[in-house]
Every structure is written in structure tokens, then in C-alpha cells.
Design goal:
This protein is α/β, with parallel strands linked by helices and about 525 residues long. Helix content is about 30%, strand content about 25%. It binds xanthosine-5'-monophosphate (XMP).
Length: about 525
């Protein structure tokens, strides 16, 4: 199916993915490509519009990313953002200068809302600025459509050639009316129809998969996480019993998680597929015995996972396809535009190199995480699976500091279940990026009844984050922390102290190991 598309041309900006996501939130499909993409390729893709991203460089820098000015002659609408705006100006004969001080943060911008980009936007609107260079003189013929006291060309346009640019970042939330501007660009300038809808994506992908797979055999490593679950269900809908899902329970899952996965995908579940659950808890605990070094633990868990998966795959024999739950951010991060580098998912410690398969199927390759969740809902996957928080491949192995034992797994599972229940009950879970309990390796003295105790301390963590690269500790209401603490020390044997982790990332990481 030929779909309408916006190309986001990446000039190294930190918001490249975000721009594509925002465009897709307008129901228009967008892909991120490197600025080096050839004009021929662009023409071949036939986009409805192009957006130049921001970037950390100055247009005058020797190694600055630049495209040729011929791109402006294609007749395709272009919106330049930040560096992309300066580049447009520079390539078309305007002047870019370096300001003595940067303009950074939320800034009130005066805009001309007779411009199609700003239709329906307030005359004074708060936008997110982050730049040192600025356009001091727009190229000939361009009309200036926004200014700030320090930025004479905060937006400019040449409607006859469908060229538009903004110095600020419409894609970030701090730009209060940014979505309206992006929507104006894709609908009013690029004349998009808004055909990017998850139901039609799901339907057409299932058809595509069916065509590709024919009567081949398919193998999927199901972790119970959002991506592998959605990928598995798509495959099940496409080829039913030709699909075998192997679910390795490494004994490091959250409380009841193994059974939850089985209830959905197993024989009593909703889908028509072959499901194999491997209860490998003891194998993992045996391998982890006495190991305390975090990287070594991760390596052991990853390798053992592959070994167990391989053993099961061997029993099935040769398969034609192996399913991977790769999603679009993985594709973008593992080398823009370069051919299908398959990121060795730290989840499962890489691809099983000996499993005999001919090809990889990646049904979610072009989806962002929130779109994967939407697709999951379209497919009727239960909400508790679809809205699951990210959970690391090595599981509770990285939430138990030091040696992992079955007893410690029990403690952290119980504490984590109580904590999650209390946070959800208080309705605080909606805004949190991730929250969980971890088991510190610290034991300390306490008193319970009239007895001295010498037990473990549980650490509670809750973070706000949108990208998981940086995070802030969340300010959970004291009442919630207090309730969870009381319940944990009363209900979980072996715990006499609960601590709250107030550290952001950096300097801490989200997980403890
Ligand atoms: P850190 O601890 O590095 O975590 O701040 C960032 C995000 O990545 C998740 N994470 C993992 N996810 N396999 C995964 O699939 C892993 O080995 C792994 N380690 C950390 C973590 O839960 C957080 O969301």
C-alpha cells in the first residue's frame, strides 16, 4: 500500500524521533532519514512534505551537516526547525549570525497568524527556544512571520515555494501550540489526508506477513513484554498454528507474571498458536549462585536465555522465520538509513546464532512505542499487557543487588507487587515512566514486637522520564510511600526497612545494576 508520508531529515538534533512521533500523532506517517539521503531517493519516496530537524552545529562549521540547495526546487513543502531553519536561510542567501548569548527556554513569541503555519495560534505564544546562532536576515522574498525581542526571524516563509521555517521547536511540549503548527504544516501546506491509522496498519501488516510467510514455520521468543507480545499476536493472526512461541520463565519475572503470560498465550488463552513455556528457574538460579558482579550477572542471564531458547528451538527443528520485536527507535538508533542492522537486543543477549532460520520478521519495525501499544489494543490484547512498563530482559536479576537467590527473588517480588498495587490504587501510576521495588544487599537492625531483627532493606524507585536516557526521581505522595512501607515490612518476611531512591539519571541509572 502506498501511503502518504512526511520525511524528517535528520541534521543531528536530539528531537528527531520526537518530530516524527508528533507528525504521526496528527495521523500522518513520518520516517526519519539522514540528511545525506540523495535527492533521487527522496523523489522516489514521493513524500508529501519534508521537515529539517534541529542540530547542534552552526551552518558555518566546516563539518556541519548540509544538504544541497536543489532540495528546495523539488516542489515538495519543507519546514525547517531550529538548525534546519538556519540552514534553509543560509542555503537560500539569508544571513545567519552567532548571538553573544543563547536564547534558551520558554520564550514568548510574537507571531503573524495570517501565516498558514500559525492559523488558529495566539498572537503571543510560548515556544521553546534553544539556539545561539540566529537568522539576522531572511533570504530574499521570504516573509518574516514571527519575532522575539532577541530573534528578528523566529519564523519565515516563502509560500509560493512552500518553504517554511521556525527557529523554535514546535515538537516539544513546552511549545504550547506546537502541535497546531505541525498539524497546519502537514494538512494545510502538505495537503495530507491523515491516513495513518492503527487499525489499517494492523490489517495491512497482517496481510503482508501472510503473503511473506506463506506456509512457512515461524518461531518467536515471547518475553511477555509489550513488543514481543504484540509481535506474537500479529503473527498468530496472520499464520495461526504455523507460529510457535517459546516463553522462557527465568525465575526473574515479577510476581505472577509467568502465569499471566501463559493465561493469554497458552492453551487456555485467546490465540491460535503453539505455546511452549519453559520453567527454567532452577537452571538460572544455579548459574547465578555466588555471582555478585552486575555485568557478569547480566551476561549469565543473557547467555542462559539463549541456551534455553536454542534447546527448545532444536526440538522444533528448522524454522523459516524468526520473529523479532524490534521497534522504530531501535531502527533509528542502530544506524539511520543503514540496511537492517539488527540491534543485539540487550534484552535477550543477542540473536541465537545457531537457531536454524532463513529470515527475520519484524512486524513492529516502523512503530514507536506508543504506536505498538495502540496496535496491541487494536489486536485485543489485554490492557495489563499492553500498558506494561518497560521491564529489563535480565528482570529482577538487576533489581537484586549482589547474589541472586530464590529467597531474594521472592522478597523483591512480594515487595514490588505491594508497591505497584499501592501506587496504582492512589492513581499515581499514569505519569510515571517506571516504578518498582529493588532489593538492596544491605541488612540492618530493626525491632519487631519485642524481637531484634536483622533483615534486608527494600528500595522503592519511581521515575519521570520520556526517553529513559535521563530521568528524575518522582515526588510520590508521602501517604502512598507510607502505606507501601507499612505493608511491605508487615507482609514481606525478611524485610525490616524501606528506603526511597531520590536520585535522578544521571548520575544514577534507572535500574540498580
Ligand atoms: P538504565 O538502568 O540503564 O535503564 O537507566 C534504562 C531503561 O532500560 C531498561 N533496561 C533494560 N531493558 N534489557 C532491556 O530490555 C536490559 O538489559 C535493560 N537494562 C535496563 C530499564 O528498565 C529502563 O527502562
Amino acid at each position: 500500500m502506498k501511503r502518504e508520508m512526511i520525511i524528517v531529515l535528520d541534521f543531528g538534533g536530539q528531537y528527531n524521533q520526537l518530530i516524527a512521533r508528533r507528525v504521526r500523532e496528527c495521523d500522518v506517517y513520518a520516517e526519519v532519514h539522514p540528511y545525506t539521503m540523495s535527492l533521487e531517493k527522496i523523489k522516489e519516496m514521493n513524500p508529501k512534505g519534508i521537515i529539517f530537524t534541529g542540530g547542534p552545529n552552526s551552518v558555518y562549521g566546516e563539518d556541519s551537516p548540509r544538504c544541497g540547495a536543489e532540495i528546495f526546487e523539488l516542489g515538495i513543502p519543507i519546514l525547517g526547525i531550529c538548525y534546519g531553519s538556519q540552514l534553509m536561510s543560509y542555503l537560500l542567501g539569508g544571513t545567519v549570525e552567532t548571538a553573544p548569548v543563547s536564547e534558551y527556554g520558554k520564550t514568548e513569541v510574537d507571531i503573524d497568524n495570517t501565516s498558514v503555519i500559525f492559523e488558529g495560534v495566539s498572537e503571543k505564544t510560548i515556544c521553546w527556544m534553544s539556539h545561539t546562532d540566529y537568522i539576522s536576515k531572511a533570504p530574499e522574498g521570504f516573509k518574516i512571520t514571527a519575532t522575539t525581542p532577541v530573534c528578528p526571524v523566529a519564523a519565515m516563509e516563502l509560500p509560493e515555494k512552500k518553504l517554511y521555517s521556525v527557529q523554535f521547536h514546535p515538537e516539544v511540549m513546552h511549545t504550547q501550540e506546537g502541535m497546531k503548527m505541525l498539524s497546519n504544516f502537514v494538512y494545510k501546506v502538505c495537503a495530507c489526508q491523515g491516513s495513518w491509522k492503527m487499525d489499517s496498519f494492523v490489517e495491512s501488516t497482517i496481510q503482508e506477513i501472510r503473503g511473506k510467510i506463506g506456509d512457512g514455520k515461524v518461531l518467536c521468543a515471547l518475553s511477555g513484554g509489550v513488543d514481543s507480545s504484540v509481535a506474537a499476536v500479529m503473527l498468530a493472526k496472520a499464520v495461526g498454528k504455523q507460529l510457535t512461541c517459546v516463553f522462557v520463565d527465568h525465575g526473574l519475572l515479577r510476581k505472577n507474571e509467568g502465569d499471566e503470560v501463559e493465561s493469554v498465550f497458552g492453551p487456555e488463552g485467546t490465540y491460535d498458536l503453539n505455546f511452549i513455556r519453559v520453567n527454567a528457574q532452577d537452571r538460572f538460579y544455579a548459574k547465578l549462585k555466588g555471582v555478585t558482579e552486575p555485568e557478569e550477572k547480566r551476561k549469565i542471564i543473557g547467555e542462559e536465555f539463549i541456551r534455553v531458547f536454542e534447546e527448545e528451538a532444536k526440538k522444533i527443528g528448522t524454522v523459516d522465520f524468526l520473529v523479532q520485536g524490534t521497534i522504530y527507535p531501535d531502527v533509528i538508533e542502530s544506524g539511520l538509513g543503514k540496511s537492517a542492522t539488527i540491534k543485539s537486543h540487550h534484552n535477550v543477549g543477542g540473536l541465537p546464532d545457531y537457531v536454524d532460520f532463513k529470515e527475520i520478521v519484524e512486524p513492529l519495525r516502523m512503530l514507536f512505542k506508543d504506536e505498538v501499544r495502540k496496535a496491541g489494543r487494536e489486536l485485543g490484547i489485554p490492557e495489563y499487557l499492553v500498558s506494561r512498563q518497560p521491564f529489563p530482559g535480565p528482570g529482577l536479576g538487576v533489581r537484586i543487588i549482589g547474589e541472586v537467590t530464590a529467597e531474594k527473588v521472592r522478597i523483591v517480588q512480594e515487595a514490588d507487587a505491594i508497591y505497584r498495587e499501592e501506587v496504582a490504587k492512589a492513581g499515581c501510576d499514569k505519569d510515571l515512566g517506571q516504578y518498582f521495588a529493588a532489593l538492596t544487599n544491605m541488612r540492618s537492625v530493626g525491632v519487631m514486637g519485642d524481637e531484634r531483627t536483622y533483615d534486608y532493606a527494600i528500595a522503592l524507585r519511581a521515575v519521570l522520564t520520556s526517553d529513559f536516557m535521563t530521568a528524575e526521581a518522582a515526588e510520590l505522595p508521602w501517604a502512598v510511600l507510607n502505606k507501601a512501607t507499612n505493608r511491605i515490612v508487615n507482609e514481606v518476611k525478611g524485610v525490616n526497612r524501606v528506603l526511597y531512591d531520590c536520585t535522578g539519571k544521571p548520575p544514577a541509572t534507572i535500574e540498580f545494576e
